[in-house]
């Protein structure tokens, strides 16, 4: 944004003017998008495919802090976290609808930045923005995205279909987004104490990007398809590894063993955890927003899995009687417990 | 709610506990709902049909005032206003996803009331709740509903397909929801001045219900289908008649003539307007939230239309050069102007 140019008040456009401004350059990319923005509803064509639908809401002060989250990144993240839910069903995201509530403290230029990120992510994932709602809010910014995707019925992978002695796998690495958040929070606190201190973020670019601009792992879905590996169960990791492993195990009626030394953690995550006196494994188990894929695969696919660099085998399922355990580096066994994000705690009223 | 029983804090359930509590009684009704709540995405089957998608966001303090809107009504309204968008495409609503952000000032009992209204509306319209997101907010209540519906491709009615010399029709009557809102606002102001004064709402039950518990006009869609009348263009009236008439005319590249004496207005709407020194026609033209259907029909269907009690012919389209005019009771002609709701005005930051 050019700081010298006066900013445009949203009130000068009106609701319909704003919608026209924000949607005028949309070009629909998918054959399934028959009619996008501009009528009472979008019209989609999903003839031979099953339709996948997921939705997420992002609230200022709960899910993001505009003190350090650039609006463009926020827009990008709102789309990629939703795309992640469709990939987690082994599907392909095709359309989103986007509802936004914002107060008049946002200028048109600020809203344009947000949409720049949204359209960038839509292009990256091949998604059409086909509808939405734009309204005012009394206080903060509120985003709600609904994503619609497709899959052949036989390809869909649920959470409750893991089997005994399946391999438990994750893509990429874990805990990085959470460490990125901790770093941003630390630098914000420093800035609040002394606004003259410049934030020190160098050497931590990767974990910052994992927090601010996470990517949905469509590449992993495609690699698995190419290698003819069909997961028996899958979900994306938004609330932390342990919470999601327990989800799949509970829904599938299984126990599990997870090995601490197999959990993939990036060097920057380790280093940040050390600097903050935290345990990197705990961050991987309980820190959220990684948007990596967690999935189970039959033991027979073991050799094929080894050829995929971006996938780690972190444990296996077992009969339900054997419980849910974490085997630590030193060989001790602990019960795996869900922590994840607890949104409804006592402090955030 | 039993006022003597202590209320349950949301924090005692946690996010997953709350979702389980709120969704445990869902029984999917539609053949197209293959998998509802409980995975990364819902799975739908729309084989031979086109998929219709629309979304709406409701923000406390902007779209509703909990000082006089019962939570159960709010839940009902959130569903019916979305269903209305699918009917306005000449389709049938089948599924919704629902995202809710709320602060800890809401008890579990309050959330249950909201969901009671949501499920009541889902039953009324034959809709399945198939997914959503539940989160906390720092301040007010925020609801976002995405509705998914179906139609045969040949049945879909858009906004931009009206033709010259079509009849312009509306269902039901207009301005009632706006008058209901004015009454509620008046009684709230009285209450704020003197909390001992009981609100005086008697004789105005109908306009209150139009504001608090609007119905989507699926019945009109079915009647038109039974009578073999296919509208050439259609939309629902959420922002006031004039704004919506201009939408259809602009999108279809047409002019129009609307006759004031043909605009259907209920007796209670007239009476309330008189009491408040307002013009009932202006309320019908510019007051929002009626959720009646506005549609255009070929002149050839005139006789068939006359047999339908709930439909009024209020004017006709004309060549674009003839402009958009309102012919008043006394025979004067004015230019029709959009007013509707202006959300982004200067006052609501």
Can you describe this structure?
2 copies of one chain form a homodimer. By secondary structure, chain A is α+β, with helices and mostly antiparallel strands. Chain A folds into 2 domains: 146 residues, 2-Layer Sandwich (60s Ribosomal Protein L30, Chain: A), CATH 3.30.1330; 169 residues, PurM-like C-terminal domain (Phosphoribosyl-aminoimidazole Synthetase, Chain A, domain 2). Chain A is built from 10 helices and 13 strands. In chain A, the strands form 3 sheets. In chain A, strands 8-10-7-11-9-12-13 form a 7-stranded mixed sheet, sandwiched between helices. Chain A has a 4-stranded mixed sheet with strand order 3-6-4-5. Chain A has a two-stranded antiparallel sheet with strand order 1-2. In chain A, helix 2 packs parallel to helix 3 and helix 4 packs across helix 5. The C terminus of chain A is likely disordered. At the A-B interface, helix 1, strand 2, strand 3, strand 4 and strand 5 of A face helix 1, strand 2, strand 3, strand 4 and strand 5 of B. Strand 2 of chain A pairs antiparallel with strand 3 of chain B.
């Amino acid at each position: 944004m050019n700081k010298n140019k006066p900013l445009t008040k949203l009130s000068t456009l009106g609701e319909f003017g704003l919608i026209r401004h924000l949607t005028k350059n949309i070009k629909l990319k998918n054959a399934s998008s028959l009619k996008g923005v501009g009528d009472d509803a979008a019209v989609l064509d999903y003839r031979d495919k099953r339709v996948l639908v997921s939705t997420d809401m992002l609230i200022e002060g709960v899910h993001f802090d505009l003190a350090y989250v650039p609006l463009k990144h926020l827009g990008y993240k709102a789309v990629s976290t939703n795309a992640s839910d469709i990939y987690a069903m082994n599907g392909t995201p095709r359309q989103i609808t986007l509802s936004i509530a914002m107060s008049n403290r946002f200028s048109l230029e600020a809203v344009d930045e947000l949409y720049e990120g949204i359209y960038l992510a839509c292009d990256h994932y091949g998604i059409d923005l086909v509808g939405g709602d734009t309204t005012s809010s009394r206080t903060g910014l509120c985003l709600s995205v609904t994503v619609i995707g497709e899959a052949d019925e036989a390809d869909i992978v649920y959470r409750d279909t893991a089997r005994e002695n399946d391999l438990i796998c994750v893509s990429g690495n874990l805990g990085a987004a959470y460490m990125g958040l901790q770093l941003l929070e630390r630098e914000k606190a420093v800035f609040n104490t002394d606004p003259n201190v410049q934030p020190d973020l160098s050497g931590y670019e990767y974990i910052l990007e994992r927090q601010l601009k996470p990517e949905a792992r469509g590449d992993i879905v495609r690699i698995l398809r190419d290698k003819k590996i069909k997961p028996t169960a899958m979900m994306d990791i938004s609330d932390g590894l342990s919470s999601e492993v327990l989800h799949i195990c509970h829904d599938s009626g299984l126990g599990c063993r997870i090995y601490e030394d197999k959990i993939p953690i990036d060097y920057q995550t380790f280093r940040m955890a050390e600097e903050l006196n935290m345990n990197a494994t705990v961050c991987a188990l309980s820190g959220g927003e990684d948007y990596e894929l967690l999935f189970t695969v039959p033991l027979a696919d073991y050799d094929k899995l080894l050829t995929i660099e971006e996938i780690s085998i972190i444990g296996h399922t077992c009969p339900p009687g054997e419980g849910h355990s974490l085997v630590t580096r030193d060989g001790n066994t602990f019960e795996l417990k869900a922590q994840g994000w607890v949104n409804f705690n006592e402090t955030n009223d």
